[in-house]
Amino acid sequence: MRTSGSHVGTPFIRVSLEQAQEERRLLELGLAVADVAERVGASPRRVEERNRLLYEIDIPAAFQRRIDREGIPTRLSVEASFGYWFAGLFDGEGHFVMQMRHRSTVRGTIKHQLELGLSVYLRDDDAHVLERVQEQLGGAFTVGAHNVARWRLGGLRNLAEIVLPLFAAYPLLSKKAQEFEVFRRLVIQRYVATLGGRRRGATVVDLVDVEEAIALIRAKRRYANRSSWAIQESALVYDDVSFQVA
Fold it and tell me: Whose CA is closest to 60, among 32, 38, 88?
C-alpha cells in the first residue's frame, strides 16, 4: 500500500487514511461494496478498485461470515393472524417459482440465470384476497385473462428477508413444506452469492446443484399433476406456473 501523508493509494484511487480504514473495516464486516460506498460517500467503482489494489478482501467470504455470525436480517412485519392465514392460503393455492434461463452472450458463452419467487393465482372474483396479500407482503398484483387474479413476489432480498422468516414462523402443512426446504436452500445460496441481492449479475456457479434441486421439485409435484383432483378451471394458466423451467 502506497502512503503519502494522510492519504493512501495511487492517484487514481487516492483516499484519506481515515476513509481507507473505514472502508476496510466495513468490507471486513461483510458489507457489499454498494453499501460501503453509500456509507462513506464514495462511488462503488472506486471502493471496488481500492479493494482490488489495496485491501484485497474476499468480499463474498466476508459476507458469508457475516451471515453465519448474524443470520439473514428479517424485514417481516405481519400479525400472527395474517401469517397463519397466508400459510393456509399458500398451502392450497400457492406456487414456488424456480425458473432457470440459459442464454448466449455476445462472446459465445452461455449465461445461466435463476429466477426465484412466489405466486398465488385465484379466480378474479376473489381478487380482494390477493390485494390483502399485497398490502401485507408487497409484490405485484394483477388481474388478467382467463378470469384469473395473480399475486407474485420476487427479488432475493424479499425472498430471504421476508418469505423465509414468514414460513419459518408460520409453517406450511401440505407437501409444499418439502418444496419450501428446497426453495429455501436455493434462496440462501443466491442471497449469499449476490451479497444480499446487491451484486447484480452474479454467476450461478452451482449449476448442477440448482438443476438437481429443480428436478427434485418436479418429482415431488408429479403425483399432484396427474391426480384426478387437479385443478381444471383455467388449467392452462395454473399448469404454466406450477413448474417453470425455461
Answer: 32
pLDDT at residue 127, rounded to an integer: 95
Residue type, 181: E
| pLDDT in the model for residue 110 | 57
List the one residue out of 162, 156, 222, 164 whose CA is nearest residue 195.
Answer: 156
Cα atoms in the 13 Å half-sphere on the side-chain side of 160: 21
Candidates 3.30.1330.10, 3.20.20.70, 3.10.28.10, 1.10.3720.10; CATH matching 80-242: 3.10.28.10
- Which three three-digit cell numbers place residue 160? 430471504
Question: How does pLDDT run across 38-87, given as a tens digit for each residue?
Answer: 999 999 999 999 999 899 999 989 999 999 999 999 999 999 999 999 99
> CA-CA distance, 213 to 204, in Å (whole number)?
13
Query: Which grid coordinates are listed for 43?
Result: 462511488
